[in-house]
Amino acid sequence: MVDTITEAVRKQYEAYSYPPPIEDAESFLRKWGPLTCDPKFAGIQLWPEGRPRQDLRILCAGCGSSQAPLIALNNPDCTVLGIDLSETSLGHSKRLRDRHRLANLELRQMSLLDVAALKRSFDLILCTGVLHHLPDPDAGLKALADVLDPSGSMAIMLYGKAGRAGIYLVQDILRRLGAGPNAEGLGMARELLKFIPPHHYLISTTGKLPNDLADDAGIVDMLLHPQDRAYSVPEIMAFVEAAGLIFSGWSDNALYCADRFLSGEMLERVLALPAAEQWAVIDNLTVLNDRHDFFLRKPQSAGFLMRFDTDECLSYVPHVRSGTRLAGDINSLVLTRTSLQGEVVIPISRSEALLLERADGKKSISEILSHSVFAGFEPGQRNSFARAVCGRMWRSGHVLFGRSGT
Predict the structure, then answer these.
(1) What CATH number corresponds to the domain at position 118?
(2) Does the pLDDT of residue 205 top 70, yes or no?
(3) Residue where a domain terminates, one of 260, 283, 303
(4) Which of 105, 259, 361, 389 is such that its CA lies 20 to 30 A from the CA of 7?
């Protein structure tokens, strides 16, 4: 029996499909590139030890109007199952499946809470923007964990508590006015938005209302949703642990990087904290993360987590992240790339740049250090230098690391 909240959520997405449907998946991928949870894009983050198989079994749990077709199109050797409560959303996905002749895509109308009934396991589970709409998100994550292969990986997106503070203030107003996810509530929300002052937390850093409020479906999803929960960093860590999983990394570390936002003694104090505490500090300080994108594994994969406090990391293979470039001049070099929050810029010395210039996705850190340009370092000094550089580049998201060259 479906509970009243879940039924209300289903009805909302039947009436207001979100994200907005797309007409052509190939055009979308050409314009925007792969989704950040796509194994073609995030493979090294999903499996730093190396992809377990080429013909991945992928589950898109709460696939919406286009996620499953986009993943299936971009990964033709993989089998993709997309499940969703909304018949309307699945209808959009079916049209994309037919348009692009995606024989590797299966679609089903069902709750992710019922995935055990499929009697299947999956190498990759994608669940982005779904769990926070469940009456019991913990039950949802546990259900997904139960069908994740032991060597599998999971990509999750949850709303961020700090970055959505303004949204919840406006949601509260609309609730008090009796506005629901319908035409009447939509009209009330549009009228209220005319009175939002420029200093309100809902106003983005660009000085404008969020882009999602430009259309009906976005307004309903953001301001009139019947079930909506957001998470702080500590709450995410507790959520993951309760499901018997381990946190294996953020989609983009730059959004939680202390080196970007602090300096001097304060930076040293924060870097002395455990990693999760560092992330919590930056999330609370910047108030920029309205969403958290991250990866999860099963406990047996704990040995593949990245750490740079011992020489073991010298066996890692660095991969410079796409879009990262060296800028400035010899006296003032920086690494820069574009993230969800705009440009990520950190200073870099010439010695550090020499190390990264030799990162080709094949050689390990140790192999790179054997190059003659590092001959002037004592072995211990060279290793500590590499650990510090690579740890900082990893924290900023400019460099990703794998356990092999594949």
Answers:
(1) 3.40.50.150
(2) no
(3) 303
(4) 105
The whole-number pLDDT of residue 346 equals: 87
Residue 98 structure tokens = 């037919």
* CA atoms 222, 223, 226, 232: torsion sign: positive
Whose structure tokens read 């211990």?
Answer: 380
Sequence-distant (≥ 6) Cβ neighbours of residue 405 within 8 angstroms: 317, 361, 362, 363, 364
- Mean pLDDT (the chain) is 93
Is the pTM value of this prediction over 0.85?
yes
Amino acid in position 387: R
**CA distances to 12, 135, 190, 219, 223 from 173, in Å:** 20, 22, 13, 14, 10
Which pLDDT does position 128 carry in this prediction?
97
- Count of domains observed in the chain: 3
Is 294 in the same domain as 349?
Answer: no
Which pLDDT band, with edges at 50, 70 and 90, does 294 fall under? Answer: very high
**Residue 338 pLDDT level (bands cut at 50, 70, 90):** confident
The answer to whether residues 42 and 78 belong to one domain is yes
Per-residue pLDDT at 405 exceeds 60 = no
Q: Note the pLDDT tens digit of each residue in 134-174.
A: 999 999 999 999 999 999 999 999 999 999 999 999 999 99
More confident site: 332 or 224: 224
34 and 49 share a domain?
A: yes
Q: Output the 3-class SS for the chain.
A: CCCHHHHHHHHHHHHCCCCCCCCCHHHHHHHHCCCCCCHHHHHHHHCCCCCCCCCCEEEEECCCCCHHHHHHHHCCCCEEEEEECCHHHHHHHHHHHHHHCCCCEEEEECCHHHHHHHCCCEEEEEEECCHHHCCCHHHHHHHHHHCEEEEEEEEEEEEECCCCHHHHHHHHHHHHCCCCCCHHHHHHHHHHHCCCCCCCCCCCCCCCCCHHHHCHHHHHHHHCCCCCCEECHHHHHHHHHHCCCEEEEECCHHHHCHHHHCCHHHHHHHHCCCHHHHHHHHHHHHCCCCEEEEEEECHHHHHHCCCCCCHHHHHCEEEECCCCEEEEECCEEEEEEEECCEEEEEECCHHHHHHHHCCCCCCCHHHHHCCHHHCCCCHHHHHHHHHHHHHHHHHHCCEEEECCCC
Judge if 295 and 316 occupy the same domain: no
Residues of the domain holding 397: 311-402
